[in-house]
Amino acid sequence: MRRTFLLIGAALGLLAPPGLAAAAEVETAFAAMDANGDGMLDVDEYVAAVVHRFGELDADDDRMLTATEIGEVDRDAFVAADRDGDGELSLGEAVGDRMIRFFDADSSRDGTVTLVEINAYLEGLE
Ligand SMILES: [Ca+2]
Ligand SMILES: [Ca+2]
Ligand SMILES: [Ca+2]
Fold first, then answer.
1. Where is the signal peptide, in residue numbers (predicted)?
2. What radius of gyration, in Å, describes the C-alpha atoms of the chain?
């Protein structure tokens, strides 16, 4: 579970240190997020994946994520995502942070992210 999050963290931009995600894991996570199977992640698919993951991680169901709930967290990334500085991530903060990464990864600027773009983005983080 942590590794998947790590991946979604790196690929999708969440709060985890970059690296460590093997190519096969990236591919598996990508396929899981690509709901319509067209080989591209669009914003709807991506946000749905982030919202779903947020719910899975929110152990106490208070609609806020603490660093403890997330597990292994890159401190700086968490602080950057925590816009109001209350030490927890709201869904809006989490999605907002993720969207920044999504558009960073979208090197072709067409509003979708492919596996090739994600892998290139991950390499750039390492
Ligand atoms: Ca798709
Ligand atoms: Ca919580
Ligand atoms: Ca916050």
1. 1-21
2. 13
Domain tally, the chain: 1
| CB 26, CB 119: distance < 8 Å | yes
Residue 89 per-residue DSSP state? E
Distance, CA 33 to ligand 3 centroid (Å)?
25
Report the CATH number at residue 36. Answer: 1.10.238
Among all bound ligands, the one having the nearest atom to the CA of 48 is 1
- Which tokens is 80 given? 């950057």
**Mean pLDDT per 10-residue run, the chain (126 residues)?**
42 43 74 93 91 90 92 81 94 90 92 90 75
Report residue 47 as tokens.
């946000």
pTM of whole model > 0.70? yes
Structural domain including 94 reads: 2-125
- What pLDDT is recorded for position 6? 42
